[in-house]
Amino acid sequence: MDLYLGIDFGTSGARGVVIDNKASIQAEVRYPFEDSPVAVMPNSWREALFALVEQIPQELRREIKAIAINGTSSTVLLVDAAGNPIDAPLLYNDPRGSSVLNDLKSVAPPNHTVLSATSSLSKLIWMKQLPSFNQARYFLHQADWLGFLLHGYLGISDYHNALKLGYDVEELKYPEWMEKLQIPIQLPRVLPPGTPVAELRSEVADNFGFRRDCLVCTGTTDSIAAFLASGAKLPGEAVTSLGSTLVLKLLSRTRVEDARYGIYSHRLGKLWLTGGASNTGGAVLQKFFTNAELVSLSREIDASKASELDYYPLLKAGDRFPINDPNLPPRLEPRPDNPVEFLHGLLESIARIETKGYELLQQMGADKLTRVYTAGGGAANDTWTAIRQQYLKVPVIASKYTEAAYGTALLAMGKVCRDTGMRECDECGECEECG
Ligand code: ADP
To answer: Most Cβ neighbours (<10 Å): which of 144, 154, 192, 394?
Structure first.
């Protein structure tokens, strides 16, 4: 039996999913991170990686043909020539790069994806003033370093992780303007996500009972892995994540970028994964209701009747997508006494914001929306699904798989067609566009 392992490094822990060649799950393993100071986090990641692998039953480990890892987007570190971290990593949400943004603005094209305090490139420029910087040989993303622990090659990344480092994913090279930054360090060589890099290091294969010819592939980021897991594969298909915030991703033939709205596109083979994120979402629902109340009150809502209430649910002022206004006030009034009516208004208002988000992506040139898969805590709410379907006017379905590790296992399997970027059909094993 040929098996494939996907490993997801999220913010709270690591997960692994083993699939067979029909993409069915054979094993799932988890390893929660303990609180540790950022400086020693790479040690915790290494521990998590090998502890996770050890949880996979020995008889399955022997059958694994390929492995891929996804990391948190823009979590980065500097390592020496032997791959040892030379300083604390900078985590995905670390804003220290804001101090170099003005310098970066004078070099990067206007509204470029790297022009954000948390982009990998801002972090790298910020790191240049570290006393330890002269010991650094390579700048890596979390997924690149974890891949190195398995295959032993430094300085290799994928074009999903490298987007926020400034890599030109259309031309498949670092852009000329980056030369002006005179970065005195090796930038990663960038390959398509899911490309086999090398066989497992022999000591890892022997210690953990893997086959010596098990391949380690380039990885991806956590949110793209979750998209790959969803089952969306054709242009026009989208995934909405109804978690604490509202995140939209729409597969398109056209690349769409607008930094004002925080809209950018990842490359997925010949297609583009366009998207944006709003601050509205489940965190606002949680402020007013427990999860049990969300279930019971939603059942009492008559989804066929429109609510009169028009809110813009936010925890604090400001949104970027689909309305770009840092001062946009939360709108949660008038609040009816009946909690069912209040929740109805909230769910419907978030559905309107979701619809507006997809309209904006389409206005900017993305493919026409045809189907919306749903992930996140709100995906289980059937009343909300019915309301959203009325606004979106396309079928709304729950994603069959939502685990990023599952999407990364598909990547290891080569199930994401590298020509078209589409997931291959589970039944025939072929990509719909390739035939
Ligand atoms: P994240 O990973 O972004 O924190 P999750 O995907 O775990 O979020 O989803 C959690 C969110 O889902 C919470 O903010 C909660 O309000 C929302 N949620 C949970 N259950 C329901 C429900 N039945 N209906 C609507 N929203 C829900």
So the answer is: 144
